[in-house]
Structure formats: structure tokens, C-alpha cells
Amino acid sequence: MHKLDTRPKMVLIKEVVRENEQVTTLVLDASVGAEPGQFVNVWIPSLNEKPFSVAMDDGKEMRLSVAAVGPFSNALCDKKVGEKIGVRGPFGTKFKFEEGEHLALLAGGYGAAPLYFLASEAAKKGCTVEFIVGARSKGFLLNVEKARELGVNVHVATDDGSEGSKGYNTEVLAKILDEGGIDCVYTVGPEVMMYKAAQMAKEKGVRAQISVERYMKCGMGLCGNCCLDGEGAPTCVKGPVMDLEKVLDSPEFGHYHRDQLGNKHNF
Ligand SMILES: Cc1cc2nc3c(=O)[nH]c(=O)nc-3n(C[C@H](O)[C@H](O)[C@H](O)COP(=O)(O)OP(=O)(O)OC[C@H]3O[C@@H](n4cnc5c(N)ncnc54)[C@H](O)[C@@H]3O)c2cc1C
Ligand code: FES
How far is ligand 1, taken at its centre, from the CA of residue 215, in Å? Predict the structure, then answer.
């Protein structure tokens, strides 16, 4: 078990993989001993520090899959082999599962990165995994081939039908839940998708673990920036992975989030 170090450690980028039209994976020559669901804070000196889910950590190297959507993520995606970035962590809660369970993993966007990490660990423990990936079109799918190579059951849905079934990945989840036998649903991606999945799991009486993303700064429960209205839990410590009951109890989840200044924005 690695001791939590609260100072950023500068780590070498040993490989850069262009995954699809939006996501780039940085392979780092370091491990923080992260488990699926946890995140690290990534620091680019004189730019900013932001949280990223760990996409893989095998004790020697670590992977982060970054969607280029704004200034920080674009700067990360532009990094080259041989450059260094600052990393703090691991932070937050992990996905929990028991040996031999039947799990449904629902991923949207870069959510397929931490869920692939979960799928690979769960498969090693004899779990049956339904890996459900959604994207607006084929060019935005992530980790589909890698998941097939793991031997898990892969289901693809695209908005335009360019790969897999046409429509939302939540429709695929609905069918799988209707068939029965799922022990737990795990979801990472756009909050509207995760909210729907949480409601569907609740209706079926199935457990669910949701990765809640809020604007994070300290990552350690100190600044209060990432608290979820309701119970007021700091999602950097009590999350990002939270149980269904906790997220649906919050008046905030699925409806709005706050920016770095605390202003509300509706989804
Ligand atoms: C616990 C946690 C884990 C995270 N893990 C990852 C991860 O593994 N990979 C990753 O890429 N990011 C991850 N993020 C998000 C990341 O921390 C940044 O918020 C993100 O990279 C955007 O930062 P930015 O400065 O580039 O863009 P910003 O200036 O913050 O955003 C630019 C614009 O893009 C929009 N936007 C932000 N995120 C998205 C999105 N995902 N899709 C579409 N539009 C978006 C914003 O609303 C804004 O309009 C995670 C966040 C949290 C809290
Ligand atoms: S990021 Fe500071 S309390 Fe969560």
C-alpha cells in the first residue's frame, strides 16, 4: 500500500496513445498504487491542477485517459513522450465488488477508461462483466477492442448507429437489467446518463455505484469546493464512487453542479 503523499510528484510520460477523436492516453513511468474508481490530481506548472481518474495502475506504470475539451485537457493531450507532469494521489473511494459477481458497467465518454480498469480487475476475480459503452459515433468509442480482448461481454451503442446498436447505452442497460441476475451496476460518464442508470437500478432493486464528478481543488476534504448539496459530502473523499442511495438522496445529483466559484449550472 502506497502512503498518500500530498505533494505533487513530477513523473515522466513514457508513451502517448491517441485513442480516438477526443481521448489521448498518457502512460506514466510511475505508480501511485491506485485501485479502480480512484483519481489523481494532475498538475501542469503555471497552468492548473485538475483531477483525472486512473485508467490503469499495475504497480509499475499508470495510465490516464484524457478527453480534450478545454484549456487544461488540451494541454495534457498535447504532452510529448519525455515530458513530465505533476501527480498527487491516489484520492477518493474505489469501486467495490465480490468474487464471482455479475456486474454491469455503463460507460460514456472517457468513463470507459476507469471502467476498463474495473473490468480487468473484476475479470481476474472470476466476475462476469457486461461492459456497455456508448458514444455519439464510432470515432468516439473508447476501450471497446481492449475490453473484448479481456474476454468480457461487450455491448456498444452509438447515437448515430455507426457501431453497435443505434441509440443510448442506457437502453442496452435496461435490457440487461430486464434479463435479471445483475448484482451491481457501475457507471462513469455524463451525469444525465448516470442519473438515469441510478434510477433504473433503484427500480429493479439492484445496487449501483456511481462516479460523481464535481469541481475539485484540494482532493483531500479541506476546501469544500466539491461538496454535494444535501448531506454536503465532499465528493473527493466520500466519492467519487458513491452508492446509489447517497446520490439519489442529493437534490443536486442529476440536476445541477457548481463551478470553481460555487455558481450553479443546470445539466
Ligand atoms: C473525479 C474526477 C475524475 C475525472 N476524470 C477524468 C478523466 O479520467 N478524463 C478526463 O478527460 N477528465 C476527467 N475529469 C475532468 C477533468 O478534471 C477536467 O474537468 C476536464 O479535463 C476539463 O478541464 P479543462 O480545463 O480542459 O476544460 P474546462 O474549461 O473545465 O471545460 C471546457 C468546456 O468543456 C466542458 N466540458 C468539461 N468536461 C467535459 C466533458 N467530459 N465532455 C464534454 N464537455 C466537457 C465544460 O463544461 C466547458 O464548457 C475528471 C473530473 C473529476 C472530478
Ligand atoms: S476538492 Fe477540496 S474538499 Fe473536495
Answer: 9
